[in-house]
Write a structure and sequence with these properties.
Blueprint (H helix, E strand, L loop, with lengths): L1 E8 L2 E8 L1 H18 L12 H31 L9 E6 L6 E8 L13 E6 L4 H14 L2 E5 L8 E10 L2 E14 L21 E7 L13 E15 L5 H5 L8 H35 L6 H20 L16 H21 L5 H12 L5 H9 L2 H23 L1 E6 L2 H4 L3 H15 L1
Helix pairs in contact: 1-2, 5-10, 6-7
Length: about 450
């Protein structure tokens, strides 16, 4: 077998492989002999079909099967021989596959990048810290009450926090537009689910009132034909309802799986959940910051094949998230562009994390794995049963080990950086990093 490798561009390689005709003929004859013993043909006893008959009748398809097998075997042999690391499968182009002549084909594929890893030495990181105050706890309990609240119609004018049932139809320059009409639409005032000015225009209105709401669509509105346009919504209020919060009693506590009779005990359990969420939020923010900085100091080229594979994963996840596991939707219907940036980041981070693990010979710390499993199990009534289930399922346990190993990578990188701590309020601490960035950008635009 002869092998030659050419770098075509970046990470792409073209490998030309030549396989002697004798190898192909030998494999074809073996398969012909095998089928002569196993094929059943009219006029021949089982196992007594002459090989020349098999070759005459099925020789072409047998040869194609052999070529496919030979390509697969010789490709991976050649890859090992040339010490290459393919990132995804190759595309194969036959240069010569004539019977009786040497087989020659070209395999085109991408390889993993060679990474000269840089740590975060000298890089500045901000590590947020936060405490849960009694006010935070009270606000959380009020939020839980609102989630379980009932709505009762009232005769008074609508106020912030009320729910109004309305009919409306929107017009621009006197013409109705698509998607601007609804009947019996329930809207909670202050929810921010409508365009700016719409909800505020409903405050002070009573059931039975009809009026025009004059508002403007934002400049960044998702529909091109409505961006920045002034609109009039002819509106009628059908009803106004106020929230009735449930009492803080044993029946209410049980709705959240908490077996407590007194408010103090319920508060203890709620605070525990808040502490778990806070710990996870702060960890994820620091991890996101670390990986962002790691990408900045390590500018690597990523194989397109890996990005395409990750895009496929993100498509499937999106379908499952919004359509459920039984959704009959082709993931390929979702535009590739929706996921390219996220997929590129994930793949880049994954490659760099692997490099950190390899360079520092890191392994998942078993004590941290046990601690992580126990923390996950603590939210269940029979925590030991859950722990046993994790340790009895290798696939799930390996996922936990991967998460722990990733945390160890973050710890290793943080140790090389310049870290300053910043105390922030609880609500800011649990806000996702991306949302904080978006809010900061909005604030800068407002000031401008």
């Amino acid at each position: 077998m002869q092998v030659s490798v050419e770098t075509t561009s970046g990470l792409e390689r073209q490998m030309t492989i030549t396989v002697p005709a004798e190898r192909i003929d030998q494999d074809v004859n073996k398969l012909v002999a095998q089928q002569a013993r196993t094929r059943r043909l009219d006029g021949f006893r089982p196992g007594k079909v002459p090989p020349k008959v098999i070759k005459r009748m099925f020789g072409s398809s047998i040869r194609q099967d052999v070529l496919g097998q030979v390509v697969q075997e010789t490709f991976y042999t050649a890859v090992e021989q040339e010490k290459l690391q393919p990132a995804g499968g190759p595309s194969i182009e036959f240069k010569n596959d004539k019977e009786g002549e040497d087989l020659q084909y070209v395999a085109t594929f991408e390889v993993y990048p060679e990474i000269e890893l840089k740590d975060l030495a000298g890089v500045e990181l901000e590590k947020q810290t936060a405490d849960i105050t009694d006010a935070d706890l009270d606000k959380m309990i009020e939020t839980l009450q609102k989630q379980q609240a009932d709505w009762k119609e009232v005769e008074r004018a609508a106020a912030d926090g009320d729910r109004v049932k309305i009919d409306f139809e929107g017009f621009i320059d006197g013409e109705a537009f698509d998607g601007g009409k609804a009947e019996g639409h329930d809207l909670v005032l202050g929810s921010g689910s409508m365009i700016p000015g719409f909800e505020a225009g409903l405050e002070g209105k009573k059931a039975g009132e009809e009026f025009d709401l004059e508002v403007s669509f934002p400049e960044d509105y998702h529909a091109e034909n409505l961006k920045g346009k002034a609109a009039v919504f002819k509106t009628k209020v059908q009803s106004v309802s106020a929230q009735e919060l449930p009492e803080l009693n044993e029946e209410f506590f049980s709705r959240f799986g908490i077996e407590e009779k007194e408010l103090d005990g319920f508060k203890v359990e709620v605070r525990k959940n808040m502490e778990r969420e806070l710990k996870q939020a702060l960890k994820m923010k620091l991890k996101d910051q670390v990986f962002t900085q790691l990408l900045k100091v390590n500018d690597i080229t990523v194989p397109a094949a890996l990005i395409d594979s990750e895009i496929d994963n993100l498509r499937r996840q999106a379908i499952q998230q919004f359509g459920g596991p039984d959704a009959n939707i082709d993931p390929n219907m979702l535009p590739k562009e929706m996921f390219e940036d996220q997929a590129g980041r994930r793949v880049s981070v994954g490659l760099l994390v692997q490099e950190v693990v390899k360079a520092n010979e890191l392994e998942a710390d078993e004590d941290r794995v046990r601690e992580t499993v126990e923390e996950m199990a603590s939210t269940y009534q029979d925590s030991q049963q859950v722990i046993d289930w994790y340790y009895g399922n290798d696939q799930i346990l390996n996922q936990i080990k991967s998460l722990v190993l990733e945390d160890q990578v973050v710890d290793h990188l943080v140790a090389s950086a310049k870290v300053t701590e910043k105390a922030v309020p609880y609500e800011e601490a649990i806000q996702p990093a991306q949302q904080q960035n978006d809010d900061a950008a909005d604030a800068e635009e407002s000031e401008a």
